[in-house]
Design goal:
Region (Disordered): 1-41
Biased composition (Basic and acidic residues): 1-18
CATH superfamily: Winged helix-like DNA-binding domain superfamily/Winged helix DNA-binding domain
Biased composition (Low complexity): 19-41
Strand order of the largest sheet: 3-5-4
Helix content: 40-55%
Strand content: 5-15%
Protein name: ArsR/SmtB family transcription factor
Number of strands: 7
InterPro entries: ArsR-like_HTH, HTH_ArsR_DNA-bd_dom, HTH_MetalResp_TranReg, WH-like_DNA-bd_sf, WH_DNA-bd_sf
Shape: globular
Structural class: alpha+beta
Radius of gyration: 18 Å
Order of helices and strands: EEHHEHHEEEHHHE
Length: 232
């Protein structure tokens, strides 16, 4: 079963784990402050609550933009604060977001993604409708991820020479195609987990340091399958 990982910068690292369809699903590195162990499985009700494009976008934005109010989220996504407030409450109901302790007021609450992440690998496996819902959630997370990568590439075409020079050697988009057994692929994922803990976790909570900016790394491991289910 394929997984993909999304590492939010400087805050809790959330896991959006594998889908029952075998398609890559967003998954983020474990947060040092969160309880160790696998991410919590979403139940059918929570999965249905998540299956809304705006709610997925909110979950995608919070680790990147930091804790946000409903008003600020509304400005970013082009919705009213009433709409984003409603969706935040629905996400909070299922433990996907939480209020930031000690910040904000009763009228202006700040929200962040809940540490520890979540898994939808078993949430929809018992019914075709559930599997379709899980697949739709995974596809939307991946669409947003790819959208950011394309935005960066387009912005690079308009960057000045100084900016281009500053980024030289710091950015890469790489694809490697190999042949391996499921066990060997699993060992690659486990090696990535070790790399994450050794090299990425020390970068947590660097927000505000001179020169520090949010960034993300994409790591995908999945079998290459054609529409008929045959290996390519």
């Amino acid at each position: 079963m394929a997984t993909a990982r999304k590492d939010p910068p400087d805050r809790q690292a959330d896991r959006d784990a594998r889908s029952s369809s075998g398609r890559p699903a967003p998954r983020a590195a474990p947060d040092p402050s969160a309880t160790a162990g696998p991410p919590a499985e979403l139940g059918p009700a929570a999965l249905r609550a998540l299956a809304h494009p705006l709610r997925i976008r909110i979950l995608d934005l919070l680790p990147i933009r930091g804790p946000l109010t409903a008003s600020k989220l509304g400005e970013i996504v082009g919705e009213s604060s009433g709409s984003t407030s409603y969706h935040l409450r629905q996400l909070a109901k299922h433990g996907l977001v939480r209020e930031v302790e000690g910040k904000g007021t009763a009228r202006e609450r700040w929200w962040e993604r809940t540490p520890g992440g979540f898994s939808i690998s078993n949430a929809g496996k018992d019914s075709p409708a559930g599997r379709q819902t899980a697949e739709a959630v995974n596809i939307e997370f991946l669409r947003l991820r790819n959208e950011r990568a394309m935005h960066f590439l387009r912005a690079g075409q308009e960057a000045d020479e100084e900016t281009v020079a500053a980024w030289s050697g710091s950015v890469t988009f790489a694809t490697a195609s190999r042949w391996a057994t499921p066990e060997q692929m699993k060992s690659l994922v486990q090696a990535w987990d070790r790399f994450t803990m050794e090299h990425l976790e020390p970068l947590s909570r660097h927000e505000g340091e001179p020169g520090a900016i949010p960034f993300e790394i994409h790591f995908d491991v999945f079998p290459t399958i054609d529409p008929q289910g045959n290996p390519l």
